[in-house]
Write a structure and sequence with these properties.
Length: 261
């Protein structure tokens, strides 16, 4: 996505998190996982959410994809405020409008790549044309792997199948939780490059949760969570390479006291 022309209007915010807090209650004990989080994600952008273990990344991701509800505040995805949906409507909304990619791929072992990709449509009682699935497979570099089951695919191929599955419903936004966490670094970088291309060439909107600077460096925007607050937001392009981004990230998470931004 080209953000270079200052005179252009900003693209519409596809996802907005407003003043969101999340408290987990365990008996008399409370864990405040997120406090007063605000963020917007523009259509066609690639956003990385970084943070140490326990900083609240998964909680934020689960709130944005409607897997859990906030204690306070609002989450809006593609113009729909999730709190207005019943549990059943939210399930349908998630199935139709949100793509999910996981660290462990989560493919069905007994199904071919083709049927894994089609799975979200089957679940909705729908199907796709051969042309659509072949085009998607071609874009993701797995055209010749469609008849294979997951156990005869490499890790990188399995993640490509999982990404194709996340896109088959033409979702408004794709959330990827540590998508390279189970891959070697070269394969992980090829997955990052693919996600970047999906944004650039198809205006897909992608949010990646990662603790890897080498993944975050592919994003447009990086948000850093610490103790449930967003403490830093910056454009990845301002850091050039993963090492420079890693140094900045370490500085941010290592700083003793930071105000939420
Ligand atoms: N279901 C839950 N019940 C109680 N506490 C929870 C629950 N889920 C998360 N937490 C707590 O909320 C805080 C944030 O957790 P979260 O999983 O969002 O962090 P994270 O940044 O994704 O961590 P990681 O990188 O280890 O997955 C942590 O203190 C965690 O222990």
């Amino acid at each position: 996505m080209n953000h270079s022309a200052d005179s252009e209007l900003p693209p519409p915010a596809i996802t907005a998190v407003q003043d969101v807090a999340k408290v987990y209650r365990q008996g008399s004990h409370c864990v405040e996982a997120l406090h007063g989080v605000n963020l917007t994600i523009e259509q066609g952008s690639f956003v990385a959410v970084m943070g140490a273990s326990g900083s609240g990344k998964s909680t934020l991701l689960h709130l944005m994809c409607g897997l859990t509800r906030p204690t306070s505040g609002t989450v809006t995805v593609a113009g729909t405020e999730l709190a207005t949906l019943s549990d059943r409507e939210l399930t349908h909304f998630r199935r139709d409008r949100i793509g999910l990619v996981f660290q462990a791929f989560n493919l069905v072992p007994s199904l071919t790549a083709r049927d894994n990709i089609l799975f979200p449509l089957y679940a909705a009682g729908r199907n796709a044309t051969n042309e659509k699935i072949n085009d998607l497979a071609e874009q993701l570099g797995i055209r010749d792997r469609l008849t294979h089951r997951p156990d005869s695919l490499s890790g990188g191929e399995q993640q490509r199948v999982a990404i194709a599955r996340s896109l088959i419903t033409d979702p408004a936004i794709v959330f990827a939780d540590e998508p390279t966490g189970s891959l070697d670094s070269v394969t992980g970088q090829s997955i990052c490059k693919l996600l970047r291309e999906l944004c650039n060439e198809q205006q897909r909107t992608i949010v990646v949760v990662t603790h890897e600077p080498s993944v975050a460096v592919w994003a447009d925007q990086v948000m850093v969570l610490k103790d449930g607050h967003i403490v830093e937001r910056f454009r990845a392009s301002g850091h050039g390479d993963a090492q420079s981004l890693a140094a900045h990230y370490q500085q941010v998470v290592g700083a003793p006291q930071l105000a939420a931004v």
